[in-house]
Fold each of these.
Amino acid sequence: MERGERGQARRGRFRRAVGHRATGAVAAGLAGLAVLASVFVVLPGVVVDHDLAGASVAAQDRLKAVNDVRTTLLQVIGGLVLLFGAYATWRQLRVSQDNLRATQEGYVTDRFSRAVDQLGSDKPDVRIGGLHALWRIAEQSPRDREAVISIQAAYLRTHLPWPPSAPESPAPDVHINDMAPLETRTADAQVALTALGVLCQNREQSWVNLSNTDLRRADCDGLWFPEVNLDRAVMEAASLYRVNLTQASLVSVNLRHADLTTGILRRARCVLADMRGAKLVETDLGDADFTETDLREANLRKADARGAVFSRADLRLADLRGADLSSADLAEARLTGALASERTRWPAGFDHAAAGVVDVEDPGPEPSPLLQPPGVTWQAPPLRSMA
């Protein structure tokens, strides 16, 4: 009985609460109707009487004035309704955009996490898929670009260290002509390097660390590595056609037989580098520092080396035909057996003949790169300086 009475009491309280709410709603509705009645019935007459200030007018004129006030009030209220509707729509649009942005960021975060997880796979094709996924994320999400660049650089440093540490890596002393291109022996590393060279074209931060990496016979054609740290990296016989290495750090780098034709090395720091037999044809070397660099048998035909520093550099047997060295620093540079032509430009007062330079006929226009073998499969000739 007590339980039934308590249930009946609860139901009674619920009915009373519902009744109170209904009564409140009715009261609110009646209040709203009273306000509208005041606005459209009473207020126009009050406004007209106030404006007349007791003046006597015909009833028809007064009625017309009252109706004009009502029309004006309707227009004002309609305008307010439109403004409120526009504001509500704008707020809803902002909320929708925020929700969409949050959803997209969550989706990108999930993709990012899955791609990073793929890099730890023991299957090369899975790692390549993860690298491509990160590349795509960096192109679509500028906020994640720097993180992707850092991950790709770390991937290269850990997978291609110099000296090589993995048993399957080519030995440090293997001849370059007996080595397969990077994309053949380590396809995932080539993908990471290519993505890095594309993404570095538009980045906010400076310096990417690729020091002490094994990039022998890497394909870097047309890639961008401005302000990249490649100190002590081994890039022997790498294909660097039209590469951009502006202000890059190349201290003690190995670029033997590397093809840097029409590349950009402006203000690059190539101190103590090994560039024997490197191709620097029509390359921009403006203001670069080649102090104590070994450039024996290097091909610098038609290179723009204005402002470059070759202090104590070894340029013996180098091809300098058509090169612009008009404002270069050649202090203590070794030039015995280097080739020059009438198109070679020397610093004012520099006696190239006394330095051992040999004048020969100018070679004329350079052959098209389309008629030459790919840099990554090019067979490097033996260097006389290494005999």
Amino acid sequence: MVEAALARIEQADPHLCAFVEVWGEEALRRAGEVDTRLDRRGADPSLPLAGVPIAVKGKNGLRAVGPLLSAGGVAVGATSVPGPGTPWQTWGLGARGRTVNPWRADRTPGGSSAGAAAAVAAGLVPLATGSDGAGSVRIPAAWCGVVGLKTTSGRLPSADRTGLAVPGVLARSAADAGLWWGVMSEEPVPAEAALPVTAVWSPDLGFAGPDPEPVALARAAAERLEAAGAVRLVRPRRPLRLADPGPAWLALRTAGADPAGAERVRAENGRRLAGIFSEAELLLTPTAPTAPHGHEGPGDRYSTSLTWAFNLSGHPALSLPAGFGGDGCPAGLQLVAPHGREALLLAVARAAETRQGLTPRAAIPRAHP
């Protein structure tokens, strides 16, 4: 498996620029160690990721993947993140240049987990680690057509002093994301959720101005979930109207800024979200407000407008592929759950894949004609 992953990376990465470093010799050595351990013991339940090639986010990504390596995973390289001179919310910078979207090379894969999403979408690796401070896992997951999970704030270790950035994963399927979650959280595999679960749909969270197409794609995906018996859409007593979290998020990220106003927004949005979750088990929204933009950048529109509310509130959230827009690029449906309910998100996502007969397909890296 590791040899095959390295061969795919060698073939595709000159075009994708998803990796900043590839650790071929070390990965093969590590894979040999896992093989030896399996030869001695046979099937080993302590190695649920035996031999699985894993990409890690950024050159320092190995610091956070100890549990994955202990479970038999093999780190094959470091993926690209925004580099000098690239806006934080747009693209990554690989060893050979800017990271491209596997579905259209003239479009961004999203960021900041840019290379991670591109590598998974193109089938170079089945799993890639990410971190999500404002949507940095979910946005590239949506724009590259893969699954992206952001965890509950505080459930897994994070070096971010603000508490906004948390670990996450990008994967080809919900089942693969669930393997990552089981290893990282050390939680037993939960019983399947009783489906359907109740869900509230919000196209804009009450403040964002998303484009019609990503809203329509996400809404259609939500309706497919309902038709598959995974969710039951319900109407809340009051429409969800969150306060725009942008100024609060930026204040918490700015050294020396007074956090009092940000904490008021956090508390008020938390109260409104608690009201929604008292009526339904999930909140569904589009993941990103626009289709993937070009490499010149998004202008004055934030790709984070539908995601960073849940970094501020700390709720777990997952982006699920929602189909393709007229430009040929993927879109995402965002599922948000109460604190600590990652297992619920993953259960609904797995049901979406199995009940709708979905099989993940890899993008073929190519230039846009």
Amino acid sequence: MPSTDSRPTSAPPHSAPGGSAPGVPAARRGPGAPGLLTAVRAALRHAAPALLAYAAVRLTGLAVLVLWAHRRHHGVWPVLAAQWDADWYLGIADHGYARHLGTAFDANNLAFFPLYPVLVKAVAVLTPGSRASTGLAIAVMSSFLAAWGVHAVGSHLHGRRVGVLLTVLWAALPVGLVQWMGYTESLFTALAAWALYAVLTGRLLWAASLAALAGLTRPTGVAVAAAVAVAALLSLRRGFTVRALAAAVLAPAGWLAYVGWVGLRLGRWDGYLAVQRLWHNEWDGGAETVRRLREVLAQNSSPELFLVMVTVTLLAAVALYALSAGDRQPLPLLVFTGVLLLIVLGSGGVYFPRARFLLPGFPLLLPAALHLARASRRFRTLCLTAAVLGSAYCGAYMVLVWPSAP
């Protein structure tokens, strides 16, 4: 691999006149940069190979899904746009949130964070079609913004080739089909990726604003907030600035605002925790995770294929985190993925969606992207082809054969 492909991109000065296009190599930035539109075009040109590769991977998965669904005489639209979590979000967009806690298990929609259903409701007013089609369109558009952000982080740290490979690996995750479903993972990953990129390039207030939005999108938004807040607080060691302090305070504001609002709505300080208990989603320090790992790997002689995939994903994520720490990834990335892993593995909730919960943890894939960047073209092609085809198969199996939510 040429040395220029692996050279980290230097962060631009925080106060560079005219700003800079995200994801564009430092050599193309500067005080004489043209207007915002030109900067965005330059950024898109830089990210174009990654975005085209991302589209190719996801279209391959969609094609396999359509062919498999046709053979089973099964509709594709409902499973992508209106089932499982998508149905919950559409219900919130249509009817709002519950006003009482209740006693029924797995039935209180206050467990679902508000940004995505609010966007669905707002955009549906301005566009034709159903709210389900609007939600799916938002998810797909968000997935491209997420892919762009993933590429921006990888390219900034290790060069354009690694950025493209990181994007392809993220697209080809076993549960990658969720990126094009009416779920929040794509929106959350887009916010997380650009927040992390903003931290890496010294834009703390932008990072904090995106972290606040991530905190309104998913419970794991606290992982983005932690990454940004830690970076902001550590920057204070170099000298006090109001900007850094404001970023540290703003980053968790979205998550805290929603959790606080749920408490006020239910009239109890632990309202959100009470809702999570009704969803069997309490913190147990990983006891349930260990029990299910042991069950799938040792006790069940014929485990369900989807559960095997989830188990392998969890174990691979732990191994990749160790490699990431060994590679001395920037602290914001390690904090983000570390807190994300802690939440997912330490939860006592349902086991089967946990591979999906880790979907936004794209920095975990950096060690693999770096290895592929240094490998021979033949090895790289074989690995990526296997990953893409495996993702296509797992995605179709996940929504057509597996009987529960992804």
